[in-house]
Amino acid sequence: MEMEVRAGTTEAGAIVTMEMEGSKALAITTTVLFNPALGFSVTSHLGRDVGVKELVQVEARSYMKHLVEQANLNFIVTGKVKETGQIVTAMKVVTLHNPKLTVEVSGVAKVSEDMLATVQFTNPFSFNLEEIYLRMEGPGAMLPRFRFYSLLAPNSSVVWTEKFNPQRAGSTRIIASLDCPALRQVYGEASITVLP
């Protein structure tokens, strides 16, 4: 038995499509466990023909609220060959990619000169994001700054601009992060070279 996750389905919030294929000309009964702690399973029967395929789709609403910081989905497929009693197992770990924050810096990159840093994020999901914390900082350029948003509706954007004055010359970055219960480890950055 073979299993693969189709390309292009690894964005957080996407429908994950898994394809199973019987590799022998035997009748195989399979069970797909997606994150067994959630109790999600699908049972299917692959026929006697070699190359018979079964598609299983897992919608975002089944997994988004259970994701933790690593944002991995574990798929375990077990099967039993009816004629021989042989047990076959396959496992696939799918790492989901979070959306990114956009960070842009404008102004003259010079010590003690005013500059602007702008962070932008659009909610790509079909559900509200709640209790959103944004953070922006830059070593030698900007002390940590914070913003809180109670709600961000689907397809809505937040744009946050802060003024800062770099305090030392050299290369540095302005780094921003977003954290909320439904979405972890979202970040973005912009590099700048500050002149004396």
From TrEMBL:
GO terms for molecular function: protein-glutamine gamma-glutamyltransferase activity. Gene3D superfamilies: Immunoglobulins. Residues 99-194 form the Transglutaminase C-terminal domain. One of its GO terms (biological process) is blood coagulation, fibrin clot formation. It holds the Pfam family Transglut_C. It comes from the Eukaryota. Belongs to the transglutaminase superfamily. Transglutaminase family. This is Transglutaminase C-terminal domain-containing protein. It comes from Knipowitschia caucasica (Caucasian dwarf goby).
